[in-house]
Amino acid sequence: MQLILDSKTWAEQVVKSLTLEEKISLLSGADVWRTTPIPRVGIPALKTTDGPVGVRGSTVTDGTTAALTPSAVSLAATFDTDIVEGIGHLLATEVEDKKADVLLAPTVCLHRSPLGGRNFESFSGDDPFLGGKLAAAYIRAIQSHGIATSIKHFVANDQETRRFILNQHIPERALREMHLVPFQIAIREANPWTLMTSYSKINGTYASNNKRLLQGILRDEWGYDGLVISDWFGTNSIVPSLEAGMDLEMPGPARKRGQKLLDAVRLGHLKERTIEKSAKRVLELVYKTGKHNYPHWIEEPEEAINRLEHQEFLRMAAADGIVLLKNTNNLLPLRLESGLQVAFIGPNSRASVAAGGGSANLNPHYRTTPYDSFVENANIFAPGAVTVKHAVGCLSNKWIPLVPENCVSPVNGEHGLLMELFGNTTLSGVAAASSHRKTSMLTCYDNIPKSFGPGKRYSYRATGVITPKTSGNHTFSLGSCGPSRMLVDGVEIISLWGRTKDSERSELFMAYASPEQRFDMRMEAGKPYTLVVEGISREMDPIPVEYFAELYREEVMDGARVGFMEEVQTDLLGDAVQLARESDVVVMVVGKNVEWESEAYDMKSMDLPGEQNKLISEVLKANPNTIIVNQSGSPIAMPWIDQASTVLQAWYQGQELGNAMFDVLTGLVNPNGKLPVTFPKRLEDTPTYHNFPGENDQVFYGEGIWLGYRHYDKAHIEPLFPFGFGLSYTTFEYSNVRVSSPIFSPHRDVTVSVDVTNTGYLYGKESVQFYVSQISKPGLPRPVRELKGFAKVALQPGETKTAQYKLDKHALGYFNEKLKKWVVDENAEFEVFAAANSRDLRGSAIFSIMNGMQWIK
Ligand code: BGC
After folding, report:
1. Which spans are transmembrane here (predicted)?
2. For a pocket test of ligand 1, which of 230, 599, 601, 602 has the largest count of ligand atoms closer than 8 A to its C-beta?
3. Per-residue model confidence as pLDDT tens digits over 502-554
4. Ligand 1 center to residue 51 CA distance, Å?
5. Domain end among 683, 715, 747
6. Residues 56 and 311: beta-carbon distance below 8 Å
7. Catalytic residue set
8. 163 in contact with ligand 1, CB cutoff 6 A
9. DSSP H or E run through 714
10. Nearest CA, atom 11, ligand 1
């Protein structure tokens, strides 16, 4: 028997036994989530699944439930690689539950603007070093289980507006020092087995065709040998993408590859060798995931296992991401004294605002809300002591909510709708498939019969029975990708039947659908109404066979979004103010949600949606003992900040959001999160104010390297809260900042250390940040200082510990575009600061470079 030593040798051998057709088949998926198997030679399919904050499995909507972790921005706020590693191990178990092999995560692109729709999903915040280090911890943990990760989206996927056709003009230095860095660090330190390209064009060429990035930088310079995957439907050519080294077109079946590649080879447009290279990389992944040991592998059904140890870990991880921004009156931590009356107010206070929207969203094993968890936990920790009441205060929904519990399927009486799919455009004949839909987000994607796609049109009908709880003027809504209409008791109330492929779009339904149409109708409490929605999938252009052209065809989801809301017949604001007045303390949970912050579109403003700012002001006036808790993945404007004594930034905390909030509010957990992104006073102060989201599908990265805190520091702009900021219920003193050597040489790294003492009365954790600043004159202008290390220490009152970080050569250089190299200036001198945040420097030490000029690869 032959001994196979490694993935390369194995792939090398297997590829030799394949026909050209088989090799080509490996270069596109088989379906939405799986690669193509070759049973003849025992190559099984690999199953991919989204990421990054849970493992959704193979159904986007209404699939099996999964653990929902805090959003990446919250994990970044922990500044804690141990927590991120723990999340990685937890997710690996969940990937196993979903019988998958590749987790499509982590997301690491920078938060370029506070308006970025996907900011919440990324580990990087303002700083590529932070993102890179955390991503490396995440990848290492997951891959230690034999499960692949897919770092994404390469590169600079920091805007959603027009993402499929956008051209990003990024100066080389900004690319090198900012946008590529999280990928570079993660690849250097953790070697993700796969990498996903972004949708847009980078400097004129689609990321999936970008030879300079994929071959030049990624493979030739960095030596990356993993598999490069397109983002879903983001393969933008037939030949150039493969020649650029974009190995795998996802999803399948093939759109730009398959027969088209076969013809390209036969016509001499493409060398078989090029096909072979990419096919080998797919095979290597089969080997790395251990799947080569299961040549006849049959996929088992997905499982949804809600583990107690995961719940506990997620509660801790979520609490550690919460950032205390203000506590001037020491209102926090709350003491649950007998007779205390607490009011929970705000649109998010009794809702489970657990994640941002888009592919990172999923159906959690369970949901918690701030109010409900507070009540539950207060009963455990201080039984009978406190009274907790709730008032919503105002609405913050962007669209009419999905159909509530009182809409049921006519077949099984369960919450949701009956969905029937027809293999024609006329809703005729017997349905090809029918299923129960738990939500009225009627997605047609990975859940439609195989015979329907790709490019074939079909139709659908959803039926539900709504029994309103109140009598009133209630609102129905509909938005759809293709033509659709809505009927209530047989009467058409909304028609989008005239939609064509060129009709107007909105942000609805991942930005693939029409604007939302609404219809108000007088309805009686307790009376059942039959709701029917009929629709046709949208028409799509054929994909032209142009072997060398950049091809774009959008084709993602189809379906419709159906909403229903009963008329609001109370004075929401008045009731909330009244409750605030009657309470000892108010916890106001405000923020954005899955509709405002999502993949597929950006935000229009930093303002809290709806009447939330007004609500906050009024409640603060009624009761100054108000704690404001904001849930968002990006900075928000806080026009009431001077009025408020107490503010927490709680991000999106996944399934444990309510419990984590209770822990921080009551001091069970001493807050220790720090902002991974600058909170500006106003949008006008931000580095990309003039250059986001661009115009005419062009966006210029005019800010260059001056992104995030680098911009605020250089321009002397006072942020609302600086990068790295976060308070605690205790206090920390820093002393004795020192370096292990005053001279840095290629053979002697410099370790920076600082002693941190807990000078307060409570146990707490502190994220110490190390910023490096070049004090000798640099060859090119450099940021005032840059984060190059961080360390977290946990301290009992009175205890002192040393926080330290080993600085390597990557902490020192900058990219010189003229020389096309990373350089460190001759005899450069540096100051390294130990800091509580980017503006709170607690001491520094100096070191310099030995041996003249150093070049960094
Ligand atoms: C997203 C990716 C995701 C993929 C598969 C795309 O829309 O950009 O991040 O992994 O879909 O769901």
Report:
1. none
2. 599
3. 999 999 999 999 999 999 999 999 999 999 999 999 998 888 899 999 998 87
4. 9
5. 715
6. no
7. 231
8. no
9. helix 709-714
10. 232
- The 10s digit of each residue's pLDDT in 812-822 is 999 999 999 99
Between 552 and 302, residue with greater pLDDT? 302
Q: How far is Cα 156 from Cα 151, in angstroms, rounded to an integer?
A: 12
Beta strand ranges found along 566-653 (DSSP E):
585-591, 626-631, 646-649
Kindly report the CATH number assigned to the domain that includes residue 489.
2.60.120.260
Q: Are residue 51 and residue 103 in the same domain, yes or no?
A: yes
Written as one string, the DSSP assignment of 328-344 is TT---SPP--TT-EEEE
- Take atom 6 of ligand 1 and give the residue whose Cα is closest: 232
Distances (CA, A) of 289 to 48, 51, 145, 308, 506: 12, 17, 9, 27, 40
Task: Tell me the whole-structure pTM to 2 decimals.
Answer: 0.98
Number of domains into which the chain is organized: 4
Q: What is the CATH number of the domain that holds 254?
A: 3.20.20.300
| Percent of the chain scoring above 70 in pLDDT | 99
- Atom of ligand 1 minimally distant from the CA of 153: 9
**Residue 489 sits in the same domain as residue 590:** no
Cα(142) to centroid(ligand 1), Å? 19
For ligand 1, the distance from its centroid to the CA atom of residue 232, given in whole angstroms, is 6
Same domain, 617 and 516: no
Residue 180 domain boundaries: 7-293
Within this chain, do residues 482 and 524 fall inside the same structural domain, yes or no?
Answer: yes
Say yes or no: 584 and 710 in one domain.
Answer: yes
Q: Is the CB of 160 inside a 6 Å radius of any atom of ligand 1?
A: no
Ligand 1 and 50: CB distance under 6 A: yes
CA of 231 to the centre of ligand 1 (A): 6
If asked whether residues 542 and 585 sit together in one domain, one would say: no
- In this structure, are 655 and 802 located in the same domain? no
